[in-house]
Design brief:
Blueprint lengths: L1 H10 L3 H9 L2 H4 L1 H16 L1 E2 L9 H7 L10 E2 L2 E2 L5 H17 L7 E4 L5 H13 L4 E5 L20 H4 L2 E5 L10 H11 L3 E5 L9 H11 L2 E5 L4 H5 L12 E5 L10 E6 L2 E4 L5 E3 L2 H13 L5 H14 L2 H23 L3 E2 L8 E5 L7 H10 L2 E2 L1 E3 L12 E5 L1 H5 L4 H25 L3 H10 L1 H18 L11
Bound molecules: pyridoxal-5'-phosphate.
Length: 481
C-alpha cells in the first residue's frame, strides 16, 4: 500500500507542485543561479567595460527578450509558416522588417531584409550559403589585420572558422606601415583568386572603409560585395560614418553592438536590376530567395521571436534624436581617448580613430597585449588583447583594443574619459612593474600578479578607485539583475 502511494506521488502530476515550479521567481526557484546573475550585475556596475563589440541594451529590449514571444514556434516567414497560431508573430516580424529598412533609410523596392538570424556568425554563414554555395571562393580582411573569424579565417595549419572549412577563402591585408587596408593588393589578389564574393567588414579597424573602391574591385572580377557592418552599424544608422548600402549587394549586421539592440542579427539583400547583359537586357538580383532559404531551412530552425521583437524596438530607437546624439558621443569619446593616450606616449594604430574603437600598439614596451588585458582585468577594466599590423603571432598579440559604446551608454563624456585614460595608464604602468619582477613569460607574470604582495596592494588600490568611479554611472536594465 505504501509502495502504491509513493508511486502515485511521483507519477501523478501535482498541480500545486507544477504551479510552484512554473511561477516561482528565479530568486526563490534557483537562488544559486540568481546569486550568480546578481554577481555579474555587480561586476558590470563596478567595472569599466571597454570591449568594442559590447553594449548595454535598453530595458524595453530586455522586456521583449523575456516576453511570451519566447514560447512560440514559427518556422518560415510571415504569411508562410509551417505552424499555426502565428498571426501576431507575423505582425511582429513584419514590424521588425519595416523598421530595419527604415533605420537605414532603405527603399523596400530596392532592399529586402531577413530579421531571423540568431546572431552575426550564423548570418554571415547564411550569406555564403545562399550566394557563394559550398566551396565557392570568398575574400575577407584577415583576422589579425582587423577582420572577423567568419570572414574566412584560417591559419597556415588549420581551418579555424566554418567560413574557411566549407568555403575557399583568401585573406587581404592591411599595409603593415600605415595600418590601412591595402586595396591595391586586394585588387591584384582578386584578379588571381577570382572570388565570388568580397567581404568589406571589420572587428578591429578604426578608419572608414572605402566601399566605392570595394565595389570597383568586385566589378573587376564579377564578385558580389558583402558588407558586414556589425561593429559600426549604429554609427552608420546615425549617419556619422559612410554607409555601405550605396555600393553593396548584401549587408549584415549584429544588433547588439553599437546598435544597442538584442543579441541577434539581420541580413539586407539587394532587389531589382543587378546589371545589364551584352544584349542590353536587365539582369535581376535573385538574392531574396537565396538568402531567405539559406537562413531557413538550410541553417536555422524556428526564429527567436523574442529577439525579433527586440530588433523591432531597438530599430525604433535608432530613429530618435537621442540615438544620433549617443552615436556622436561614442565617436567623440573614442577620439578623445585616442588623443589622451597619445599625449601620454601611447602608440595608437593609424594615429587615431574615426569610429568607436582604437587599437593600442604596445610593441617595444615590454608588455604584450595579453599581459595588458590581464592587469587591466585585475583592476576592473575590461578590454581585449588584439594583434597589431605586422604582428608575427596571432597567439601572442602586441596590442589591445578599446571601444566606447558601453561606457557612452552609461553617460560618460570626454571629461570622464580623462579619468578612464588615467586608470588605463596606471594599470599599464603597474603591468610594466610586474614584468620587471616576472620577466617575459606570461605564466610567470600571472604568478607574480597572484602572489606578490606589494603588487597585490597596488592592484587593490587601483581597483577600488576604478570601481568607485564606475559605480557613479548608471546602467540600463533591471535594477537588481
Ligand atoms: C564584424 C563582425 N561580424 C560578425 C560577428 C559575429 O557576431 P556574433 O558574435 O553575434 O556571432 C562579429 C562579432 O564580434 C563581428 O565583429
Amino acid at each position: 500500500m505504501i509502495c502504491l502511494l509513493l508511486e502515485q506521488s511521483t507519477t501523478t502530476m501535482s498541480r500545486t507542485g507544477i504551479s510552484i515550479l512554473l511561477s516561482a521567481n528565479l530568486w526563490d526557484a534557483d537562488p544559486e543561479l540568481f546569486s550568480l546573475i546578481q554577481k555579474e550585475k555587480k561586476r558590470q556596475e563596478a567595472g569599466l567595460e571597454l570591449i568594442a563589440s559590447g553594449n548595454f541594451t535598453s530595458l524595453s529590449v530586455l522586456q521583449c527578450l523575456s516576453s511570451c514571444l519566447h514560447n512560440k514556434y514559427s518556422e518560415g516567414l510571415p504569411g508562410e509558416r509551417y505552424y499555426g497560431g502565428n498571426e501576431v508573430i507575423d505582425d511582429i516580424e513584419r514590424l521588425a522588417q519595416k523598421r530595419a529598412l527604415e533605420a537605414f533609410n532603405l527603399n523596400p523596392e530596392e532592399w529586402g531584409v531577413n530579421v531571423q538570424p540568431y546572431s552575426g556568425s550564423p548570418a554571415n554563414i547564411a550569406v555564403y550559403t545562399g550566394i557563394v554555395e559550398a566551396h565557392g571562393r570568398i575574400m575577407g580582411l584577415d583576422l589579425p589585420d582587423g577582420g572577423h573569424l567568419t570572414h574566412g579565417f584560417q591559419t597556415p595549419t588549420k581551418k579555424v572558422s566554418a567560413s574557411s572549412m566549407f568555403f575557399e577563402s583568401m585573406p587581404y591585408k592591411v599595409d603593415p606601415e600605415t595600418g590601412l587596408i591595402d586595396y591595391d593588393q586586394l585588387a591584384s589578389s582578386a584578379k588571381l583568386f577570382r572570388p565570388k564574393l568580397i567581404i568589406a567588414g571589420i572587428s578591429c579597424y578604426s578608419r572608414p572603409l572605402d566601399y566605392e573602391r570595394f565595389r570597383e574591385i568586385c566589378d573587376s572580377v564579377g564578385a558580389y560585395l558583402f558588407a558586414d557592418m556589425a561593429h559600426t552599424s549604429g554609427l552608420v544608422a546615425a549617419g556619422i560614418i559612410p554607409s555601405p548600402f550605396e555600393y553593396s549587394d548584401v549587408v549584415t549586421t549584429t544588433c547588439h553592438k553599437s546598435l544597442r539592440g538584442p543579441r541577434s542579427a539581420v541580413i539586407y539583400f539587394k532587389k531589382g536590376v543587378r546589371s545589364t547583359n551584352a544584349k542590353g537586357e536587365a539582369v535581376l538580383y535573385d538574392l531574396e530567395k537565396r538568402i531567405n532559404n539559406a537562413v531557413f531551412p538550410a541553417l536555422q530552425g524556428g526564429p527567436h521571436n523574442n529577439g525579433i521583437a527586440g530588433i523591432a524596438t531597438a530599430f525604433k530607437q535608432v530613429k530618435s534624436v537621442e540615438f544620433v546624439q549617443y552615436q556622436k558621443q561614442v565617436v567623440a569619446n573614442a577620439q578623445h581617448m585616442a588623443a589622451k593616450l597619445i599625449d601620454r606616449g601611447y602608440n595608437i594604430t593609424t594615429g587615431g580613430t574615426d569610429n568607436h574603437l582604437l587599437l593600442v600598439n604596445l610593441q617595444g614596451t615590454g608588455l604584450s597585449g595579453s599581459k595588458a588585458e590581464k592587469i587591466l582585468e585585475r583592476v576592473s577594466i575590461s578590454c581585449n588583447k588584439n594583434t597589431v599590423p605586422g604582428d608575427k603571432s596571432a597567439l601572442n598579440p602586441s596590442g589591445f583594443r578599446l571601444g566606447t559604446p558601453v561606457l557612452t551608454t552609461r553617460g560618460l563624456v570626454e571629461a570622464d574619459f580623462d579619468k578612464v585614460v588615467d586608470y588605463i595608464d596606471k594599470g599599464i604602468k603597474l603591468g610594466l612593474e610586474v614584468v620587471k619582477i616576472s620577466g617575459p613569460k606570461l605564466v610567470d607574470y600571472i604568478r607574480v600578479l597572484d602572489s606578490e604582495q606589494t603588487i597585490g596592494k597596488k592592484i587593490e588600490a587601483l581597483k577600488n578607485d576604478v570601481e568607485s568611479f564606475s559605480k557613479t554611472f548608471p546602467i540600463p536594465g533591471h535594477p537588481d539583475y
